Amino acid sequence: MAEYVSSGGEFNRDTDYITTRITADGRDGYPVEPGRYRLIVARACPWANRAIIVRRLLGLEEVLSIGFCGPTHDARSWTFDLDPGGVDPVLKIPRLQDAYFARDPNYPKGITVPAIVDVPTGQVVTNDFAQMTLDLSGEWTAYHRDGAPDLYPKALRDEIDEVAKRIYTEVNNGVYRCGFAGSQEAYEKAYDRLFTALDWLNERLENQRFLVGDTITEADVRLFTTLARFDAVYHGHFKCNRSKLDEMPALWGYARDLFQTPGFGDTTDFVQIKQHYYIVHKDINPTQIVPKGPDLSNWLTPHGREALGGRPFGDGTPPSPTPAGERVPEGHSA
Question: 223, 201 in Cβ contact below 8 A?
Fold first, then answer.
């Protein structure tokens, strides 16, 4: 996640990312190559969680390795504290900032995940999370698994882009606008915007299984990671407390539908999610006490969304089970 700054009481996200792209033709100097790049993520981060999901759905595990930062970080950087010796086993660095500084010794921005690193040089190629997942879908097609879904079908791209834009501004970023508001007025304005959008989504999903078309697309991935964190973090920690997710029927059924789909729930680590927000955000939670709840067993209850039709993977198939070294730890999910 990028650094957050309040100006006049309103939250503003720094969106100036490294926009170099990894493409099939290598036009930015970084061609798609199996084994060359490493995707660095933190399970706690919703923006990184998107990349984890898309990589898994497309079956890119064998060609794009993955490194996991721990759920907390200091003012300097995300760290590899989950790895032996606190060092990433491939990049041989203890802090993600080392890869950013390898690209630019004077890099002035936030050290964010997800980031894709060029292993031979140790340099970050991109941390542009929105373009990153689109490129995994569109530029890495030669290495997609058999049966991989089309998450960004050409015929639906305009609608996906339109829906995704509203999801980003009003929901993905909207919860942060609530949580980091610097005044009562800014908070209440952000709160109203957020729930206006959630009501719109709830209504949209009453009669259709997925956000755009009848299959899972990039739009669904982008919404899911915020919904997965809503009751566990945003409802209380960010004061988004008009309604819990499970009090918005269509959204709650939709979220459970995705959660129970391979690639979504099996990449969601509620323990790390809660640790990140409640420990790192000391300005909001100075005691750093991590809440024990909520009960997560309801994520596995029947959702009934199959009655709306739709085919989650279109003409494709679900991904195979998560590789052993990438599984969410036992007891960290529903």
Answer: yes
C-alpha pair distances (Å), 281 with each of 112, 227, 268, 332: 16, 20, 20, 21
Q: What is the pLDDT of residues 231-283, one digit of tens each?
A: 999 999 999 999 999 999 999 999 999 999 999 999 999 999 999 999 999 99
Contact 180, 104 (CB under 8 A): no
CA distance 323 to 334: 19
Q: Which of 36, 53, 14 minimizes the C-alpha distance to 267?
A: 53
Q: Name the catalytic one among 30, 152, 176, 234.
A: 176
Question: How many other CB atoms sit within 10 Å of the CB of residue 112?
Answer: 25
Q: Quote the pLDDT of residue 1.
A: 43
DSSP 3-state of 300: helix
* Dihedral sign of CA atoms 225, 252, 310, 317 in order: positive
Residues 194/174, Cβ–Cβ less than 8 Å = yes
End-to-end CA distance of the chain: 24
CA distance 326 to 43: 11
pLDDT for res 7: 53
| Annotated active-site residue in 45, 69, 178, 240 | 45
Which DSSP helix (H) or strand (E) runs through 65?
strand 65-69
pLDDT at residue 52 greater than cutoff 90: yes
Q: Has 176 been annotated as catalytic?
A: yes
* CA dist., res. 146 & res. 142, Å (int): 10
Q: Please give the model's pTM, rounded to 2 decimal places.
A: 0.96
Residue 314 near residue 215, CB atoms below 8 Å: yes
277 is known as an active-site residue: no
3-state SS assignment for residue 46: helix
The candidate with the shortest Cα–Cα distance to 69, out of 112, 33, 36, 108, is 112
Contact 256, 303 (CB under 8 A): yes
What pLDDT does 8 receive?
A: 62
**Rounded CA gap, 142 and 33, in Å?**
10
Q: How much is the pLDDT for 75?
A: 82
